[in-house]
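Deviations from the work plan: none for this task. Representative record:
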Amino acid sequence: MAGPLIGLTVPTLLIIGNKSFGISSSLRHICAICMPANIHFFKYDWRKEIWNLFFVAGIFIGGMIAAFLLTNPLQITVHPSLVQVLSNYGIVDYHYLMPKEIFSWGELLTLRGFLIMVVGGFMIGFGTRYAGGCTSGHAIMGLSTLQWPSLVATLCFMVGGFIMANVILPFILSL
Amino acid sequence: MAQNTDFEVRSLDALCVNESELEHRWYHQLKYLVVGILFGIVFVKTEIISWFRIQEMFRLQSFHMYGVIGSAVIVGALSVFLIKRLNIKTIYGEAITFHPKTFNKGLIYGGLLFGLGWAVTGACPGPLFAQIGSGFSVVLVTLLSAIAGTWVYGYFRERLPH
């Protein structure tokens, strides 16, 4: 059911205010608000794009509601061969949506945690803006409107993801 | 002046084009908050924001994420087709506009880089917000780093190949 509900976000945003679905631009608006630093790319009237920040604030609140008010036991079922592989790197806790062994404040100070959370985050921010959109803007909104440049971007997202998950991440996890 | 390569923001430059002509009070924005809340709940309940699900997707061990993205695109495309065909207006009676995207090399370089970040963090920008909300406060650091990445891109933009 998740896919169709996410797909319906496209017409919902268009109909309630003529907005094109896209989430990563919220990061650009935050830059424009907090630290435009006279950079041309951040000099625009962010007030006219403020809807996007209300939208991501909603995603944050929705995450809270789902995790704390609508709880069912969040034991996640993962493919057995992935469980096998991850156990080699000390990842064995499946009580949460994310592995506690990586995503914790203590892990930030390790090389592994730093590469995953800090360097990973940087690549998300730099990459999405360089590509002009993310999964929502290109893969969903772009493909829904049948734009071939978005197909190119989506294929590149996938290629990058395959390389990371299969080639680079096993090395990072072993650190 | 650099060409517009950013398709989510309606104008790259200081002045916005093609925005709604209508002025609304701030509380009209709350409707986007509501859509966001529903979206965030779907993200968590269907485990889309799970790092494990992203690993399964890129290791071809599960087709959950492909099904989600694929069906989202089908529903999205069908809706866009109907909006165009039936000439559906916004709730304020405005015509709905679509913005053509043009190819530039940044789609490839940036796309590959984002793909690397997506698989390592298990999140794209939307799920970052939901992961923080669902209790992983440390992901705030990932979000701040993503904001820093966006800023650095903005800083070097004119010197990067597009």
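The radius of gyration of chain B is 18 Å.
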